[in-house]
Amino acid sequence: MSADLFSPSLQHWLDLAGIFVFAISGALLGVRKNFDVFGMAVLALVTGLGGGLFRDLVIGSVPPAAFADLGYFLTPLVATLLVFFLHPEVERINTAVGVFDAAGLGLFCVAGTVKAYEHGLGMTASTALGVATAAGGGVLRDMLAGEVPALLRWDREIYAVPALLGATLTALLLKADQLSPAAGAAAAALAFTVRLLAMRYGWRAPRAWQRRSGRAGEA
Amino acid sequence: MSADLFSPSLQHWLDLAGIFVFAISGALLGVRKNFDVFGMAVLALVTGLGGGLFRDLVIGSVPPAAFADLGYFLTPLVATLLVFFLHPEVERINTAVGVFDAAGLGLFCVAGTVKAYEHGLGMTASTALGVATAAGGGVLRDMLAGEVPALLRWDREIYAVPALLGATLTALLLKADQLSPAAGAAAAALAFTVRLLAMRYGWRAPRAWQRRSGRAGEA
Amino acid sequence: MSADLFSPSLQHWLDLAGIFVFAISGALLGVRKNFDVFGMAVLALVTGLGGGLFRDLVIGSVPPAAFADLGYFLTPLVATLLVFFLHPEVERINTAVGVFDAAGLGLFCVAGTVKAYEHGLGMTASTALGVATAAGGGVLRDMLAGEVPALLRWDREIYAVPALLGATLTALLLKADQLSPAAGAAAAALAFTVRLLAMRYGWRAPRAWQRRSGRAGEA
Predict the structure, then answer these.
(1) In terms of C-beta distances under 8 Å and separation of at least 24 residues, what long-range contacts does A142-146 make, across chains too?
(2) Closest residue on chain C to A85 (Cα)
(3) Who among C34, C62, C88 is closest to B216 (CB)?
(4) For a tag site, which of A195, B112, C170, C180 has the least CB within 10 Å?
(5) Which segments constitute the Glycine transporter domain (chains A, B, C) (predicted)?
(6) ipTM of this model?
């Protein structure tokens, strides 16, 4: 998930931080679903690396960063061990996990958009891949665990919207050739802040108009 | 999903039409599952573009058409908006949607087979990718929504068979170097017609022989 | 799934054998889920070829072996026909199927690691792709059928561990430039034996520490 937006070293550490917090959420879901430690590790790997893997396959960057950089691969395993030994403590700081997950969302929607754009994709496609980088791992996590992805559900706070805002702003800045590190950080902060506000105030996206209320509870 | 079978412009419009009708079915499932508008959009994108995306990744055509052509990407979003504002009306013409979906099936099984063949794959592999192009989006749609894919289920009318017939005929015509636009249209019409007849007369494929009836209801 | 570890011809036959036994397990799940014959075929194809397809997409080997070698593609269809006509007999030898599946696991974790390593991936990434080659098809099979993948579940015997042992040994041998056919066969035999012992003695992997027993039954 590297991109030369920030200095390579800083970008790499930001990537690892994003992978780590996503992986924590995957390993925690593994605990809640009563999976064993290998099930936890698979969910952690998929959540942390799945979005970037999808993006890299689409833009033809093989082998994907997830398999080319050892740190990327080992980070979810560290997260798994942490949750394995300390999960009651990790659960207790669930709000903190939500905040870190929002930070990962912000970082990845920017980094994913930049990498896709640098590989020659158009603005719209780059924005879409930025959102997919940020949200794709969580969707795969939920599918593997046999749950309907939270991203799709009406009864969850908005998740795609913050990523879409951050990715769109990034694409506009790239188009205008104005994506400085500070501007990239601002785009990530935008996604991060909107996601935090959505969690705090329970923001949801609308369902289809004129949906009969009698069917609202069926899903 | 392009292929120079018809004139580029006509082929492009046919592709968009196929993507559109598949996307409608995805967005409608989103309404039925009580998803929000972004969940509807994700299902519409996946249903309309997923089959072609899988084919393009397999044949190494990156970035896939879904991300290289803006019209391909925007069409499912238009379908989402339409269903969002008008879904009772769209539901009412559900039979029409089924007919359009059958048309998309016919178009995509031919276009997918042609594109795979042009990328150097063999007849059998091209046929398989034609079927995957036509049916893959619907399978991904059902998996994301937490449903067992209709394609696999015994209690649904056959869907793979019409696509298989159209794709096989296309591959045979390609092998014989006889795939004129008219012949391609005939292959698409074959798949379309068989699917319509299957829906009209409730054609199903057989289950395993000697399956004990006592276990029939468990799935 | 070819690799020049053994003579090409022997390797090819071992690959086909592995695909065949995996495909049998896919087709049998299709019977249990009450799918029709096309649903059985899709599950057989996905189980037999899915792991190798994922590996080939990741290492950029397109078209993947599954679509480049006709024998690879036809083998799952033969397995489907066999189960379709003879499934009570196949069910009766379910233990034998388990043994063959363990053999496929052993063969594929070695062959997958070798192929990834030959494409220039590092030791850890090659090991991971070896495990993914061996276990990926079964995960996709379970996801398609609407089941939580057996690989993740605590109440199933370990499956990832034998593959991990075989793949790790293979990667170490490759690193030391000592992977003779005999050494490769030993790595496959290691995975095979550990999996058989796990099935025989009900070996399971641990869940997260301090997991409260009151929540154990919820998943």
Answers:
(1) A142/A29, A143/B143, A143/B144, A143/C143, A144/A42, A144/A43, A144/A46, A144/C139, A144/C143, A144/C149, A144/C152, A145/A29, A145/A30, A145/A33, A145/A35, A145/A43, A145/C148, A145/C152, A146/A33, A146/B146, A146/C146, A146/C147, A146/C148
(2) C209
(3) C34
(4) C180
(5) 13-87, 99-173
(6) 0.89
Please report all neighbours of C, defined by 3+ CB atom pairs within 8 A. A, B
The pair of three-digit structure tokens given for residue C54, joined into one six-digit string: 């994922």
Residue C12 burial (CB < 10 Å; 0-12/13-18/19+)? middle
pLDDT of residue C98: 83
pLDDT digits (tens, 9 = 90+) for C31-45: 989 999 999 999 999
Neighbours of chain A (3+ CB pairs under 8 A): B, C
pTM of the model: 0.91
Residue B213 in domain: no
Instruction: Tell me the C-alpha distance between A92 and A100, whole Å.
Output: 14
Residue B68 counted as domain residue? yes
> In terms of residue numbers, what domain contains A76?
8-202
CA-wise closest residue to A122 among A67, A58, A192: A58
Q: pLDDT by residue for chain A (219 residues), tens digit each? A: 444 566 777 788 888 989 999 999 999 999 989 999 999 999 999 999 999 999 999 999 999 999 999 999 999 999 999 999 988 877 777 777 788 889 999 999 999 999 999 999 999 999 999 999 999 999 999 999 999 998 999 888 999 999 999 999 999 999 999 999 999 999 999 999 999 999 999 999 988 876 544 444 443
Residue type present at position C16: L
State how far the alpha carbon of B210 is from the alpha carbons of C77, C83, C161, in Å. 19, 11, 37
Per-residue pLDDT, averaged over B101-117, amounts to: 94
In chain B, how many domains are there?
Answer: 1
Please count the other Cβ atoms lying within 10 Å of the Cβ belonging to residue C147: 15
Residue B180 domain flag: yes
CA atoms of C200 and C190, how far apart (whole Å) = 15
Q: Cα–Cα distance between A20 and A80 in angstroms, integer?
A: 9
> How many angstroms separate the CA of residue C182 from the nearest CA in chain B?
33
pLDDT at B2 over 80: no
